[in-house]
Structure formats: structure tokens, C-alpha cells
Amino acid sequence: MSDSSRETTVAPLDRTRIRGARTHNLRNVDVDIPRDRLVVVTGPSGSGKSSLAYDTLYAEGQRQYIESLSVHARQFLDQMERPDVDSIDGLQPTISIDQRAGIVNPRSTVATVTEIYDYLRLLLARLGEPVCYQCGEPIRQQTPEQILEELMGLPAGTRVMILAPMVRGRKGRHAELFEAIRKAGFLRARVDGEVVDVHDPPALAQQRAHSIEAVIDRIVIREGVETRLAESIKLAIRHGDGLVLAVHEVKPADGEPTNKKTMKSKSDVTAGGKGTDDWREVLFSTEYACPFCKISYEELEPRTFSFNSPYGACPRCEGLGSRVQFDPELVVPDVKLSLAAGAIAPWRDATPAVQRKYKAALEKFIAAAGFRWNTPLEKLSPDVLRRLLEGDGKKFQGVFTMLEKEMATTTNEANQQRLANCRSSVTCPDCGGSRLRPEARSVRVGGKAIHEITAMTIADSRTFFGQLTFDEEDLPIAEPLHVEIVGRLAFLDKVGLGYLTLDRPTDTLSGGE
Fold it and tell me: For site-directed labelling of 426, which of 59, 280, 331, 366 has its Cα 20 to 30 A away?
């Protein structure tokens, strides 16, 4: 619009004229709205529809109406601020049906309110592939019968060595372990890949990590060995705390595996080979636990993936994905100040008794760290400043811990506000905002964990599930869940919400969304 139109003071009779609207995300919007007609304001989410209609036009109409009332009447009404706008001419009395957010639960997300998350939890619980969250190894639980069946499925003539893992990657000489293996009735052990006589064990380096397995049996796969092999497997399970390590040769006809370890050279001789064939290690576990890290896992259930359940929620943030804690930039806003000059902001307005208590707690740390009360904090090394705030992990608990304890124990409203002013919401450092326990974050379907799926946009997740395939034996479980998930994603995408991520909190959605 031209400048001359902005300067016109005569109110139009057939339209409401808005000039220079800057409310919220509006940027100097000029618009004429016809009067006495039904007008629709449309546009994508975040374009400023509500800012124009409610926060500018309606708000100014209400403000002018209230100002037209008597002083006595206005004292009973809330005063309204004028919208950020240059001028509004031809405005009639306004009335609106207020828009309110339907869901304010901080735990609700796009995935939960559309029930997509419920189907995802079922899918992961029934068909998810768990891996150890510490080392990344697959978590598989097998019965002795299943182990026997897998080994008997090897080609006839395959040589197999059954081992009972006793020590895996642990430092020490382990002299007493060799004695225990000998007393258990075994003649041989495998130490770091080499078979040795337990009556003449090698001298191991104290500071080096070693892996030691008792040799239970060496056997050739053929008809009639099932009973012997089953007994050897049970014996290995008993002495290996639920673990069985099978080392077998891989003949050229077998092909190279994709998910098993291949042993060559030294280990070939160890397993009794001639050094020309390949050998494969397969670690079985009868416990639902990582065979390497010894971390036990519970059976997968839908609640394992629920951040609203203590069985699935991250213990630190309790399933919220963020936590309110003392912010270093708010606790120490000016590092040019010293402790004596009030560098710790929440202590400046504390009572003298509280200040004396904190000073007494800091004195030993200051003396040990080698600085003074009047030393500006910017002069401290990053390590000393970190220990001052976070503690040294020994006797000194740190400023943050002191403040947290005061926050938890004080009943004084002024003190609570003083401390709250130095706190802010941060992404949970344990779960990275996923809201889930590490056990839930390490289960995958189609190569992705549940929090990685929900971090996708609706459009991207629709593509992901469209390309997801399942084994034929899993289809009776997977197909109904897959249909429900894809159907909901398709609907959301078609109505124009494909840009939203599934983990988007519902209290951050606009009214239209």
C-alpha cells in the first residue's frame, strides 16, 4: 500500500483497514477486510492466521470496548495491551469463540494421540531385534535343545569344539581358575585362542585382559552323536554360567557367514584343524543377557517401550525427555566476578546464615584447588571450575548439588523463587530426549529403534514403513500392526501434516494442527 493510504484518517465504511501489523510473527502486514461478510483467513501452520484474527483484530476490538466503559466498570476487568500495529480503522465491536489447546499433557506426542505409538510398541515387543546397549552384540536366548538343533544342522563331518566361557576380557594371572578347571575334571582350556593343558598352564600377564574357556568336548557331527553333544552342551552351560561357545569348521560349501566370527591361522590349529580351513565361533546363551557384558535384560513387552511406564521410562527424566536443573549460565552469569564478589548468583540474596554455611563448605576445596575467595572465576582452569560447580566425585559435592539440596529442603517461598530463577529445562543427558531406558532404545525393527522412528517426520516414516519387509513366519503378527500404522500415517500425510515429527509434543502444536 502507498504511504498516502496509511495517512488517511477517515474510517472506511465498507471494510476494516489494518496497517503495519507486527503481532507475533506478522511482519508489517497491511490488509483490508470486507465488513458485513463471512471472511475466511487461510494459510499454512505458522503463517500468522491466529496472530492476525485473534491477537490483532479481536484484541484491539476488545481493548477499545473496555476503554469505552466507565472507570468504575473497568476496575473489574483485566486491562488489555494494545496490539503491535500502526493503525486499525473501521473496526466494529468484536466477539470470538476462543481457541484452546485440546491437550496440555507434556507426555503426549503426535504418535501417542494418534495411537501410532501403541502399535509401534507392540511391533517392537513382538518382532524387535534386541542388541546390547553397551557393546552392540545381538541378545539371543536359546534353550539347550535349540543349541543342539543348530549344531546338528551343520554338514556331516564338521568338527566342533564345545567350550564353557569362564573369563572374558578380564585382567589377571587367573592361576586359581586353571586349578578350578582341573578339579572340575577337564584336561584342556583355551586361553586367548590357544588350547593349553590345564596341568601346565601358561604364565599370564597380570595387566593384560584374557579370555579363558574350559574345553568340554571335541566332536564330529554325524548320526548318533546327539546324546553326547546334548550332554556336552548341558555341561558347558553349567560351567559357563549359561553360556556355550561352539567353534566349528566352515567348509567351502557352507559359504561365508555374515554375522558370525571367523577364526583363521592360530585358531585353526587350536580347534584341531590343519590350518587350511576356516573356523567359526558361535556364542550361545540360555539367559536373556548379553554374553559379553553380562547385562541382563527383561523379556520384551509393550510396556518396555512406554515412557509413561516405570518399566520403559528413562529413570533420570522419568519419561519427559528433559529435566529442570541449575543452568551454569544462570548460576554463574559473570565469570569476571570472584566468589567474594558474588559470582554464584543464587547466593547473593541468601540469608547471612545460608551464606556462612556455603562459605564453610567451600573453604577446603578452595584451599586444595589453590585459588582465593577474591580470584575471578575466569582465572580458574576449566577443570577447577567444573569441579567447583559439579564436585570432585569425592568429598566435595559441588555448587550444583548444594543448590539442589537447598531446593529440595527449603519451604520459604522467597528462597524457592531465588533458586528457581537459576534453573532451566535441558535435554536429558541420559536418554538424549528419547524418554526411554537404554534397553528400549537398543531394540530395532528394520534397522531402527523406536525413538529413531518417532524422530522421523510423518512423510518419512510413511516411506520407511512402506519399504519395511518381514519374514514369512512373522507376517501373522506383523501384518495387522503394519496395516494400522501405515493407515494412520497415510491419513495424517494426506491432510497436510506430513512435516510433523511423530515425537512432536502435542502442547507445541498450533490450533489448526
Answer: 366
